[in-house]
Amino acid sequence: MTTIAVITGNPKPQSRTHSVALAVADAIAAGLGTSADRLEIDLAEHAARLFDWSDPVLSGLTAAVASADVAIFASPTYKASYTGMLKAFLDRYGSNGLAGVTAVPVMTGGWPGHLLAVEVHLRPVLVELAATVPARGLYVTEPELPELDAVVARWSATATPLIIRSLKS
Q1: How far apart are CA 71 and CA 134, in angstroms?
Q2: 58/135 Cα distance (integer angstroms)
Q3: Per-residue pLDDT reduced to its tens digit, 76-116
């Protein structure tokens, strides 16, 4: 069985960014054609402990993500990049901490002017942690949110086959 981890680095709990990440997880799971276990981590619920390197809950979550088959890392766009909250979570990993994980970078933003942030800022840190990032990341703007299913489906048509191929390698 495939495990899909969803990690959202938005300071607001149950944010729109989290909804986008869950929609991406659903699309990937549907593309797999089999059932998938899902681990949901909304970092807003763990903010107070993010910088406590010995926190057992965060240590457990970090290990669970590192053992997932697919990990979706989602963030709203803050200052043309991903949030410090997501960065703090990713800083918990060593240089090869996500080896063996197929990662999917996802970002949301108010306008398309920052759409490259997902590729220029979030993808490189995932690669640095040795994750495999086989497909383009997804950037969803606020005006696209009412059409989220269609936006994710368009992205998924190209991305999911690449993600599945990565899992078989």
Answers
A1: 12
A2: 28
A3: 999 999 999 999 999 999 999 999 999 999 999 999 999 99
